[in-house]
Design brief:
Pfam families: A_deamin (PF02137). This is tRNA-specific adenosine deaminase 1. The protein has about 500 residues and is an alpha+beta fold. The chain is built from 13 helices and 16 strands. The strands form 5 sheets. Strands 12-11-6-2-3-14-15-16 form an 8-stranded mixed β-sheet, sandwiched between helices. It has a two-stranded parallel sheet with strand order 1-13. Strands 4-5 form a two-stranded antiparallel sheet. It is globular. It binds zinc ion. Zinc ion (ZN) binds next to loops.
Length: about 500
């Protein structure tokens, strides 16, 4: 195990109460831990949340004001980008930083030996939640972000009509200590493990996880066969819908009894389909192209990748590895990150079907996902966001103000990037960047300057699994900093303040 889950859970426990689940709610938390030769491991970025906006709300956000996706893993990655910006600002003014100028003078690299490790309290939604297993563990492996636990994965009854699997699934690692008497697909009270203790005032420090399976090697190729319900095993389904209409129709017709492993999916949700891809697919993309994104790759050109991914809950090592690495077949894809399952992690706000659930019996039953999200990074402030609007908590729903925007929304990321380009010494900027012109360039066109990153992205989107990747309409990234944040003179003044 590369990450001590307690580091992330303790950091979450220390954050303010606002934005955390209320009684009867659950959430997912994800954190990124920095390993460095010069200091003890520490959490540098954290996100919690379970929501994303419907496609219509995303399309209407033409000024980059809202967070479209507030799932925990996506929040942690956004927080990491803010942390990296903070480190770049520090480097620009000569302060100690984890980023250092590159030898060729163009841009920065993270210092030698620095690694980023992700821990999530639950398996990423989408492909990593599609698990075949012989026991109840599989049912608990799903993340249902919109549907109540009543609709949890159902035990499949073997049927002669089930389609044959192309190949048997790799065996999932055995689950340690399954919860006592918690059959899958029962009503919430029956499906929930008995409440073992009253709620702690703060999340208990995670008990040292039981020995996790060794870091796994990727299989030769990612399985894309329906998981074999006909073998009499349960198939934990994901509420995330396949992007392919044919696969989606097939799963709908099977009423969730057979999920297809390995396919790209949009995030779970009732009603209108969202245009946000599942966390499993996004993790695969970050692995392929770099977790820093296009904008930051202009200043940190070397692709940053997660050195390891650890999931809590009833995750499957095989599904996790397949979801985030084995499906990536691009020429420039690196070796798979190490993956691990954290057993026995006690997260106070875990989904009730998880064995680590510790709510009292009085709070079981009608549990629902918490609609609020938290985003925090080392050196910054903690921000609570309403996942249903993508704006900061407390924002007036009827009248929008720029003050309601979260610091990680595209509009504010762009302003901060423009400030950075002015603050960074000119000789460290790539030649294609004109710091003074940044404020009048669209968000999309600035991202387009990152040619190496765009090439990796193109390769990724042309690979068979991800060919039907759903994106937000282009109008969502057509705004400029000047359009949405005011005149560039303000940017220059702010940049001078940084220096
Ligand atoms: Zn997710």
């Amino acid at each position: 195990m590369e990450v001590a889950p307690s580091l992330v859970l303790d950091q979450y426990a220390q954050l303010p109460r606002t934005g955390k689940p209320q009684p009867g709610e659950w959430t997912v938390v994800a954190g990124i831990v920095l390993h460095s030769p010069s200091e003890a491991p520490r959490v540098v970025a954290l996100g919690s949340g379970t929501k994303c906006l419907p496609a219509a709300a995303v399309a209407a956000d033409t000024r980059g004001s809202r967070l479209h996706d507030t799932h925990a893993e996506v929040g942690a990655r956004r927080a990491l980008r803010l942390f990296l910006m903070d480190q770049l600002e520090r480097a620009a003014r000569g302060a100690p930083s984890i980023v250092v100028p590159r030898a060729d003078g163009r841009g920065y690299d993270v210092a030698a030996g620095v690694e980023f490790h992700l821990f999530s309290s639950a398996p990423p939604c989408g492909d990593a939640a599609v698990v075949a297993s012989a026991g109840p563990a599989a049912a608990a492996a799903q993340i249902e972000c919109e549907r109540p636990p009543t609709h949890a994965a159902k035990r499949h009854k073997p049927s002669a009509a089930s389609p044959p699997a192309a190949s048997p699934p790799a065996a999932s690692p055995p689950a340690a200590s399954p919860p006592a008497a918690s059959p899958p697909a029962a009503s919430p009270p029956a499906a929930s493990p008995p409440a073992a203790s009253p709620p702690a005032a703060s999340p208990p420090a995670a008990s040292p996880p039981a020995a996790s399976p060794p870091a796994a090697s990727p299989p030769a190729n990612g399985s894309t066969a329906p998981l074999p319900a006909e073998q009499g095993k349960e198939c934990a389904q994901t509420g995330a819908r396949p992007v392919s209409p044919r696969a989606a129709e097939g799963e709908a017709a099977a009423r969730g009894r057979a999920c297809v492993a390995g396919v790209a999916r949009t995030k779970p949700g009732r009603g209108e389909r969202t245009c946000c891809m599942s966390c499993s697919d996004k993790l695969a993309r970050w692995h392929a192209v770099g977790v820093q994104g296009a904008l930051l790759s202009l200043l940190i050109p070397t692709p940053l990748r997660l050195a390891s991914v650890t999931a809590g809950g009833r995750a499957s090592l095989d599904a996790l590895l397949r979801a985030i690495a084995s499906r990536v077949t691009t020429p420039s894809a690196p070796a798979a990150p190490r993956v691990a399952i954290a057993r026995g992690v006690a997260f106070e706000y875990a989904q009730p079907s998880y064995p680590s659930h510790r709510r009292p019996a009085s709070q079981e039953g009608d549990t629902r996902p918490c609609s609020n999200a938290l985003l925090w990074y080392s050196g910054g402030t903690c921000e609570a966001v309403n996942g249903l609007t993508g704006l900061r908590m407390g924002a007036n729903k009827r009248s929008f103000s720029p003050k309601h925007r979260a610091q990680a929304c595209k509009a504010l990321l762009l302003r901060r990037f423009c400030k950075l380009c002015i603050a960074v010494p000119k000789h460290h900027l790539p030649p294609e960047i004109s710091a003074e012109a940044m404020s009048r360039s669209s968000y999309a066109s600035i991202k387009g300057l990152a040619t190496a990153y765009q090439q990796r992205k193109l390769e990724f989107l042309q690979s068979s699994v991800f060919r039907e990747w759903v994106i937000a309409p282009p109008v969502c990234e057509a705004f400029t900093d000047e359009d949405v944040n005011g005149p560039p003179s303000e940017v220059q003044e702010a940049a001078r303040a940084i220096v």
